[in-house]
Structure formats: C-alpha cells, structure tokens
Amino acid sequence: MHERSGTVLSTERVHVGQIFVTTRDRVRLPNGRTATLEVVRHPPSVVVIPMPDPGHVVLVHQYRYAVNSWIWELPAGSVDPGENAEAAARRECHEEIGRVPEHVDRIVELFPTPGYCDELMIFFRLRGLTMPSESAHRDEDEILEPHVFSVPEARALVAGGEIRDMKTVVGLTYCTVP
User: Fold this and answer.
1) Which CATH number, 3.90.79.10, 3.90.930.12, 3.40.50.2300, 1.20.1250.20, labels domain 45-172?
2) How confident is the model at residue 2 (pLDDT cuts 50, 70, 90)?
C-alpha cells in the first residue's frame, strides 16, 4: 500500500515574484520513489460569474500581456493576504465591472494546472448587482471593458472560438440560478 501523499525532502526557492513563487522540491512520492519537481506556488484565486439577471452574464474584454491579446473572460483575481474568498469575489466584481453583489454563491473549487501549480480557483455566482456609491481601484495592469451578454450569446462565443480562456469556459457552465 502506498502513502497517500508525498513528503518534501528539500525545497529551494528559484523565483520570487509579485504574484507567485517558484520552488524546486526534492520529494518522496507516494510510491516511494524520489523526484525533483518545480512548482509554481500561487495564492488561491476567485472567478466571479456576475449575473445581472438569470439570463445574462457580465464578461470583461481584457488585454493579457502573457498572450499579447485581448480576450473575453469572467472577472477573476487573487485572494489577498488576510482576505477570505467571498470578500475577494465581492472586491473583484466591484473592481472589474463596477458593481457590488447582494448575493454571493460559492459554486466549485478547481485546480486549473495541477501538474505544476498549486493555485486553487474558487468560483462564485454573483447576483443582485448594484451600482456602488464609490468607484473601485483597478490594478495597474488591468485594461478591461465589461460587457453584458445573454448566456446563449456567451456560450456561442465559446463555440465560435472567441472565448479561449479556460476558467471562463468552465465558469459559463455554471450560469444557472437556483
């Protein structure tokens, strides 16, 4: 019988950035073998599914430098230190689409790239979107424009290859209101 988890024998930080840390870990795997693995250590993040009404969803058209392209996606962002995931979802909604939600429903938690990254994405459906009295601060790298789509229109963008962001493809499958 194998152990249920691996054991870290040694770890070395090979990169420390503003958003994530990369480590090179020597580990004993559950099968008893040892391996050296590089892991991106990333804080949890939230993906918000803002629904102004049961038939519509808000997507943002955002410039992403890593792929040098404008892409349609659901609003998302990292959970800040000391912040809980629900508060991060509310903050990201305010920052990225200029609305605050009355209802926040936690939907699912997924690992987007578990082969090399420990980031956990927590998906939330947000309803009862209202205009706040004050505007929110956007991150310096955020260049985005929110747009309301009907759920069928958003899903058609996926089918047509216009939405290529995986968290958005997954999130759009949860565009139902209980």
Assistant:
1) 3.90.79.10
2) low
